[in-house]
Specification:
By secondary structure, the protein is an alpha/beta fold. About 45% of the residues lie in helices and about 15% in strands. The longest helix is centred in the N-terminal third of the chain and has 50 residues, at about 1-50.
């Protein structure tokens, strides 16, 4: 009798174990069923959307209950439209969305920075150091104080109780070293460096330039500490006029966005702005006021000592005859900018190579001077000669 009871107890334990295992399988099957139903529902909904035709990109401008004011990309049309109930809680102003033919919001697009803005990030530091820039000691000091020190030594500004400069504007004639200063900053700091030309902000379609400006500052905020360098800023920040053309209006709209990003309500954080221009006289007063560009640094043509220093930098690795006096050359080329002096040294070396020599002579510099001066002088093209 006891053996039979023991066998029944063992059988009951086996049944309970099997029951527990089956219960686990049933729970797993139920969970999988829910997931498959959800996936089937999603695929069915996606299939219905695909059958309904193409979707169009738009940006949400404002929200009102379950409706939104959207601006369609391309034609810049504004529409008050419905939002699908499933998306009503996730759509926010500024989102990029996909809309159907009836302008109903169907999808919220992933947040992404414009690829053009991402392409402007410098991945490898330029091979330019402050020691490679001659005749600009004062300008280098001011740039380092305004751009490097706030990023490297923020505690000094906090201890003194002053806000670091928000931006630096470099202005002066072409070839004086403005871009080289920015390259040296990119090389000497560990901050993300984002470079662009002002002309790149002038876009074809309405609102594209302003959006690119927003994306640039968003990229800098995501990569901070960061330095944004805008070369030839006069292309987008020239004085405003009463012109009614769509092109001028788009340039002014882009400048308004740039001004808003420079001193908007949001804290800029560890982002510093450097800009350069050859046409300081063309810039709008609004962009020059303190708080946007706190330091206006003139980068003039070098003096005699600066020209000699520049020549020493660009001839440091050249094989030169003993008859060359860089001080005399610097005094002779009084009208040359830093870029022209660099070209002068290169041309002198080319004349030596042309003659099969490994050393550069003073005559080579004279020939290079004559060539550069001649190439910079406009020539009058004579008309055809007629024989009488």
């Amino acid at each position: 009798m006891s053996e039979r009871l023991t066998a029944m107890q063992e059988h009951e334990e086996d049944l309970e174990s099997i029951h527990a295992e089956l219960r686990e399988r049933l729970d797993e099957a139920t969970r999988l069923q829910r997931e498959l139903r959800a996936e089937a529902s999603r695929l069915k909904e996606e299939n219905e959307m695909l059958k309904g035709g193409s979707l169009y990109l738009a940006t949400v401008e404002e929200l009102a209950d379950e409706r939104a004011i959207i601006r369609q990309h391309g034609n810049n049309q504004e529409v008050l439209t419905e939002i699908r109930p499933q998306l009503a809680s996730v759509v926010e102003p500024g989102d990029r969305v996909a809309i159907d033919d009836s302008f109903t919001v169907q999808l919220v697009m992933d947040v992404e920075t414009d690829a053009r803005a991402q392409a402007m990030e410098i991945q490898q530091s330029p091979d330019v150091a402050y020691a490679d820039i001659g005749g600009l000691d004062e300008q280098i000091r001011e740039v380092r104080e305004a751009v490097e020190d706030p990023l490297v030594k923020p505690e000094l500004f906090a201890a003194v109780g002053v806000e670091p400069p928000a931006g630096v504007l470099l202005y002066g004639p072409p070839g004086t070293g403005k871009t080289m200063l920015a390259k040296a900053v990119a090389n000497e700091t560990d901050a993300t460096f984002i470079k662009m030309a002002g002309s790149e902000l002038v876009r074809k379609f309405i609102g594209e330039g302003a959006r690119l400006v927003r994306d640039l500052f968003s990229l800098a905020a995501a990569r901070e500490p960061a330095v944004i360098f805008i070369d030839e800023i006069d292309a987008v920040a020239s004085k405003r006029t009463d012109s009614k053309t769509s092109g001028d209006a788009e340039v002014q709209r882009t400048m308004m966005q740039l001004l808003a990003e420079m001193d908007g309500f949001d804290e800029r954080g560890e982002i510093r702005l450097i800009a350069a221009t050859n046409r300081f006289d063309m810039l709008d007063e609004a962009i020059l006021r303190p708080g946007r560009f706190d330091r206006l640094i003139e980068v003039p043509k070098p003096e005699a000592a600066g020209r000699e220093e520049i020549l020493k930098i660009h001839t440091a690795e050249m094989q030169m005859n003993s008859d060359i006096d860089l001080g005399l050359l610097a005094a002779e080329f009084s009208s040359f900018s830093g870029a022209e002096l660099a070209a002068l040294a290169t041309e002198a070396g080319m004349f030596a190579i042309r003659d099969g020599r490994t050393e550069v002579s003073a005559a080579d510099f004279e020939a290079a001077h004559e060539k550069i001066t001649r190439s910079n002088t406009p020539t009058t093209i004579a008309g055809p000669a007629y024989h009488r």
